[in-house]
């Protein structure tokens, strides 16, 4: 064993740059609202070992670059992150890669007097859209996603046939509420040319497929529904190699109303917030690579 202490993996940058871009070339304004993180990887040894900052593109500069790039429009979180990754890796020799991440928040136009307002918006609380670009030399990985997409179905879900031991008390049911907050991340095939990709359309399409996948079949378990959802996305989108899910099983327990002389035919539930089942899985194409480097740093998925 050597006693020499050396620098291992490292990256740095500005985290959570909140940027709101208003496009106001007509009276009908548009709004793009993002939370962007930029992290550079490359040769930063001198900074860590000798205090020599000659290679350290300041995190403040990274933040300013995000704002400056937003001036020309965001377009989509994915396209914006790809532009940032290209800028930093082509602009500084020693920056060989990095990780750029965004959350984006949707604003809907306020309906006012029966029509959509030109410049007043209401935050759409449905879900948060996510994107990650990981670049290593000439390899660029792109992962899109969403989180906090809360869905529930009031029937067509059950849970039976599981093993019973001395600790098992859960009654079997063929009719229960199924509810979850969908977190999903899908990885585009590495090496695709994305110059013509309409990421906003792709996002809306994949979100719709996820929602359809949740509704379509009788659910024997959240695990099966998860797989149904992922399969639909991969079948319809050949450019997506794999999709990962993390979904809490938000239990709804039937309340015993018999002390009050009432029946309860699956109508009144106690919505428990914890503990919750936590169901996680990857749905992927058989024999396709899984690109672990792309997923590094994305917490909460398996
Ligand atoms: O859909 C479910 N999957 C499980 O793994 C599980 N376990 C449990 O207690 N209830 C459920 N429901």
Automatic annotation (TrEMBL):
It is an enzyme of class 1 (oxidoreductase). It catalyses: urate + O2 + H2O = 5-hydroxyisourate + H2O2. Its EC number is 1.7.3.3. Keywords: Oxidoreductase, Purine metabolism. Pathway: Purine metabolism; urate degradation; (S)-allantoin from urate: step 1/3. One of its GO terms (molecular function) is urate oxidase activity. 5-hydroxyisourate binds at residues 60, 159, 176, 223, 249. InterPro entries: Uricase (IPR002042), Uricase_CS (IPR019842). Signal peptide: none annotated. Pfam families: Uricase. O2 binds at residue 249. Urate binds at residues 59-60, 159, 176, 223, 249. The active site is at 14 (charge relay system), 59 (charge relay system), 251 (charge relay system). PROSITE patterns: URICASE. One of its GO terms (biological process) is urate catabolic process. Belongs to the uricase family. Catalyzes the oxidation of uric acid to 5-hydroxyisourate, which is further processed to form (S)-allantoin. This is Uricase. It comes from Pseudarthrobacter sulfonivorans. The lineage of its organism: Bacteria, Bacillati, Actinomycetota, Actinomycetes, Micrococcales.
């Amino acid at each position: 064993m050597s006693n020499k202490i050396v620098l291992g993996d490292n990256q740095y940058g500005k985290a959570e740059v909140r940027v709101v871009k208003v496009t106001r070339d007509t009276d009908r304004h548009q709004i793009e609202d993002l939370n962007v993180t930029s992290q550079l990887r490359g040769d930063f040894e001198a900074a860590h070992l000798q205090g020599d900052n000659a290679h350290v593109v300041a995190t403040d500069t990274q933040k300013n670059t995000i704002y400056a790039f937003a001036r020309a429009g965001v377009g989509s979180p994915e396209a914006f992150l790809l532009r940032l990754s290209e800028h930093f890796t082509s602009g500084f020799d020693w920056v060989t890669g990095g990780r750029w991440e965004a959350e984006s928040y949707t604003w809907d136009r306020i309906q006012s007097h029966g029509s959509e307002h030109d410049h007043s918006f209401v935050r759409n609380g449905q879900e948060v859209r996510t994107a990650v670009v990981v670049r290593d030399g000439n390899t660029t990985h792109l992962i899109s996603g969403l989180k906090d997409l809360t869905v529930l179905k009031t029937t067509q879900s059950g849970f039976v046939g599981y093993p019973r031991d001395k600790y098992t008390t859960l009654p079997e049911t063929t009719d229960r509420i199924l509810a979850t907050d969908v977190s999903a991340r899908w990885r585009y095939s590495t090496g695709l040319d994305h110059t013509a990709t309409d990421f906003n359309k792709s996002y809306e399409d994949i979100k719709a497929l996820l929602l359809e996948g949740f509704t379509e079949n009788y659910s024997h378990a959240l695990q099966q529904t998860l797989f149904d959802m992922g399969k639909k996305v991969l079948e319809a989108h050949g450019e997506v190699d794999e999709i990962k899910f993390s979904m809490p099983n938000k239990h709804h327990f039937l309340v015993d109303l018999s002390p009050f002389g009432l029946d309860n035919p699956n109508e009144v539930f106690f919505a428990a917030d914890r503990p919750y089942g936590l169901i996680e899985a990857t749905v992927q194409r058989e024999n396709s690579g899984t690109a672990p480097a792309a997923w590094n740093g994305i917490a909460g998925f398996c």
